[in-house]
Write a structure and sequence with these properties.
Three copies of one chain form a homotrimer. By secondary structure, chain A is an alpha/beta fold. Chain A contains 18 helices and eight strands. In chain A, strands 4-3-2-1-5-6-7-8 form an eight-stranded mixed beta sheet, sandwiched between helices. In chain A, β5, α4 and β6 form a beta-alpha-beta unit. In chain A, α11 crosses α13 and α15 packs across α16. The relative contact order of chain A is 0.07. The interface between A and B is large, with 70 and 76 residues. Chains A, B, C: One of its GO terms (molecular function) is ferric-chelate reductase (NADPH) activity. Chains A, B, C: It is a multi-pass membrane protein. Chains A, B, C: Pfam families: Ferric_reduct (PF01794).
Chain lengths: 449, 449, 449
């Protein structure tokens, strides 16, 4: 992971005529695979190595020189040089200053550009570059332009992050590990743990202490298959709650021009992750449900049931049939919409949608999914809500708890869909403000363009 | 949704040296999040607001000035200015002319470029820009070039749609809601409705009137699970029918240089959507099938069966076992290929295939899928075709109806694969024409390059 | 598929001012759809046809002229011309030299650029271009630059493959059919065939000859559902074996600067494909498992079981319940992680991950998946390993065979995770070499930047 950098002679107009000469310092994996790609893109590549003769193989067509020599050669036309610093650190704040800044201090004459440091040798070797985002920063726009052109030729998408002062930030990028997923994952795991223990007490322990039955084997599948849908439904509603809250804040303030509280902003920014985690739990729930009938316990129950109450007739209950079937159907449709939402959150799919389409899918379809899944939950307990035996040890069953949040979200959403409320909200979102006078707005609209 | 626009001073060569100055008129969500991205990309951003002091927060590092002042400042070097119009309308034909054209009339001196109006504040905030397509149009190529550069820096893919006369078209883009999906969805829903009622009559009503049994609960799952595969299979065959028709038209005309009828062109353009809808129905069919054994009605049937005919022996029928198993296997393989086809139609996956690979998957694999799924349908009724009891009220069961179209497609495809037909078709597709003389073709081939 | 080419007048600086004029020779599908896109991107397009009057419809706004006329016109300012050769061959080595080289010989004055030949008319018509990679090669960097700009305007990602000598290679691209998938697919099919026959002998034939029972119907589902998980697990371990081998080679050599043997390099380059095939088999295994309970044979077994041993009580075995349930749970979790791995190998998803995130998913999650799936296999046979009846005809059952490779991989991986080994490996991968003196390394680190 030692700092590696690319020296790029910017030959101005000439650059367009014959391929540019690039010097890569360091012949590590990154250096080698980068050089290979650059050669493929028609550049001339020279490696600067500490031990030109024992530095291992370099890509076909590249030369290797001793670093010292190379540095001298370059120093001769230092005013032309662009230094790209691809270095990364092993941990945050490893050095007092950013490597790129340090490099700039060492070679004041050169134009240092920090960037491309999120590239992995792996991605370079396997040509996983097309559309990959890389970041650049540096003080010279000309230098950045030259580097950006090089990166574009490799098929990369270049994002300019401003001056060299952003170098530190860029050097921290590769050290990040799913920063946006942290919070949602914690919430999901917390909910899972809570409901797991809650149901463990209500089902297993209750059966053990009250009826003296050992049904601990249920922990593996039955319990999990109760917890997963619960967490999934709650996460899904948490994914649409912030939007509703935001709407009410705007209604209350009567304007859209005032910032939301930070916690709400942060919440809204990780809605995608929350939704995808909800989808994951829903998928687990689906698979757990599919394997129910092949489970030993289930088959045993079915068989023993036959043996024991052989005599008692078993009448077909039409209501029961309707209830269970609609329960399953709602579950299936909900899961199907879940998957649709997940697909549209794939970068390549979402990127091909117009914002109205994307908004339609994520908002309309999203709330439909939430409604269907909540109904799925209500039907599950449709005839249990009033039965006292449901409340073991005076605690409500899990699915009742998990219906609270979604129900609230849906009720609030209903309120927002009332014509009067909806109109006000639409006008606010189009820029109208309660405090402002209508005529003033009128004359502004005139001068607007 | 009020019109927002970006003024972009084009500083010519200087542009390369220091970041360009951008003025954004309007501090709405779009303006704010766009400004944020532009600042990140190293631009200087100034907001023009009607109420600079109460316009809410603007991104760090951006200034806010009163629109009037800003306009004056700009007007001083109007000959340098590029105006980007990002405005959208709330509904089609809201104004007599395109906003961009109106803007151009208002500021004749400026070079107006219409575009970026498909961007959503949402996508901008969450950095969903990489690879996203945006459209530009304008009368000045230089101005478009400058805007395109800006957009590229944001990681967008810019498509130039020509002169400002295309502005209207661009302003209608964001109002479109899955235009290509309309027709396929209507067809799918129509088929679903038809077969639903058809089977409702044949199964539920028939059982009610003839046998006096109430099996209405079947509507929820059993019926749906018959309708979904039927619609899915028909849609899949409708996805390959136009290709076959086109081939026969070419054979008949003996040339590929004459246009297909419009209806065929339109049909061929929405094949992808038809296929994906077919996949959706297939997925529903799969899930409905997986939950069969946990359904109340099914379990009840199993149990009661045991109780009633306890005495009669239940012999194992080898043929039955083979038939059902191969029925399931064909279904599974068909579904598996379905999913493969769906995956390759993901933009990012399809984009990484060479046209021959894409063609192989979509044509060869596609027809294989159709064949397997059709066989799946035939085996389902293998021993029912000749049984009179199958034709309740003299109507054929649903799966027979749904086998008609696929069978036709497959037979026609077989004909096209006959060596003699295939050769002619290949030659036609390579440019040969029946009307033209062979020698002439010969000498042309010589002068071809 | 006849050679088509685009002539592109490079008007230098003027190009920026008014749209460039493009001449497309040949009005085939590719020519027409390419012209359409180019017109949309604001170019002027003229077609060169052999029969301008019977060449079928060209896109709106394009002109058609006779090829000869057009060539004359162009020849008048030949020094300005850029010829893009999009031609492809029908099979490899169709002509002695590359079409582009031939074209260059024919028109020595022009600057020939080979490329864009991987584009399909289909992709062009349906606007599947965004992010699609195309390749260019040619001797004039200026010409390549002009073509690259044109391609970028179409939303394509351009990769420069160097001089015209690479034309042959480019012309072979469209003829490739999943080159990287060949080897993995062969391995997978080979394993499938082997285990199929192995289990056929052990299960079906054994039952036939020893017990005289005909259970041939098992071939369809039961056997397949044993073979698929076996192959999937082996493929998954083959996906992580090369990485382990590479680590040991590096440990043995004490350096990372020496190349791996070719077979290992090739193996490592198709790890992605191996993993995806393993996922495919896992998916099949999952679906096969879901439909078990609705199979005729299974239902028959269940029912007949009831009828026969009606008297004998059927006691609930807690251990059995635990074992089977944990068996299923491990399978489900394994499959879930499988799917996650598959998702991150989608170009658009993988491209949005930093290399550390990608590495985390592919390495950490990957090995976790392998561990869980292996445990899934071990639990399956937890109580059968010592039972002599397991070894029919003295052969081990399939799941034992399939556990060999994964176990080896996991054991080796454990060894690599031992602190002492891990530290050495990390140091080696950071560039340290056993042969080199530590102080030397020290002073180099100083001069490193």
């Amino acid at each position: 992971m030692k700092p590696e950098s690319v020296a790029l002679h910017h030959l101005g107009a000439a650059a367009a005529l014959d391929p540019e000469l690039l010097c890569i310092f360091g012949t590590g994996d990154l250096g080698r695979s980068l050089g290979q790609r650059l050669l493929q893109s028609g550049y001339k590549v020279v490696y600067g190595s500490r031990r030109p003769h024992s530095c291992g193989p370099v890509p076909q067509g590249a030369q290797v020189q001793h670093m010292a020599t190379l540095l001298c050669v370059i120093t001769l036309h230092l005013e032309l040089i662009v230094l790209v610093d691809l270095s990364n650190n092993l941990k945050k704040d490893m050095y007092p200053e950013a490597n790129a800044v340090y490099l700039q201090r060492l070679v004041p004459g050169a134009e240092v550009v920090k960037g491309l440091n999120t590239l992995s040798a792996w991605a370079l070797q396997n040509g996983l570059l097309a559309g990959k985002q890389v970041f650049l920063c540096g003080n010279s726009a000309k230098a950045k332009h030259a580097v950006a052109e090089m990166a574009t030729k490799l098929g990369l998408t270049v994002l300019d992050r401003g001056s060299l002062s952003a170098a530190r930030e860029l050097e921290d990028f590769p050290l990040q590990l799913f920063p946006q997923w942290r919070l949602p994952l914690c919430v999901a795991l917390g909910l899972t743990a809570f409901f797991y223990f809650y149901l463990l007490i209500r089902d297993v322990l209750y059966a053990y202490f009250e009826d003296g039955k050992d049904i601990s084997f249920r922990i593996m599948v039955s319990l999990a298959n109760k917890v997963f849908p619960i967490v999934s439904l709650i996460m899904l509603s948490l994914c649409y709650l912030p939007g509703v809250i935001a709407a009410f804040i705007q209604l209350y303030r009567g304007t859209k021009y005032s910032r939301f509280p930070d916690w709400l902003d942060r919440w809204m920014l990780c809605r995608k992750q929350i939704g995808l985690i909800a989808l994951g739990f829903a998928l687990l729930h689906a698979i757990y449900t599919f394997i129910i009938p092949i489970r030993y316990a289930v088959r045993h129950k079915l068989i023993s049931r036959m043996k024991n109450n052989k005599t008692t007739p078993f009448n077909f209950d039409n209501t029961e049939a309707w209830a269970t079937d609609s329960f399953y159907v709602l579950g299936i449709l909900g899961f199907f919409l879940y998957v649709l939402l997940g697909l549209t959150s794939l970068p390549s799919v979402g990127g091909s949608l117009s914002w109205r389409e994307f908004n339609f899918v994520q908002s309309k379809l999203g709330h439909l999914t939430l409604t269907i899944c909540t109904a799925h939950g209500y039907i599950y307990g449709w005839n249990k809500f009033l039965r006292p035996s449901t409340y073991k040890w005076y605690t409500p069953p899990g699915y009742m708890l998990c219906l609270v949040v979604p129900s609230i979200v849906l009720v609030l959403k209903m309120l927002l869909l009332l014509p009067c409320v909806d109109n006000t909200l639409t006008r606010i979102r189009q820029g109208w403000e309660r405090t402002r006078l209508r005529e003033e707005e009128g004359e502004i609209k005139a001068t607007n363009l």
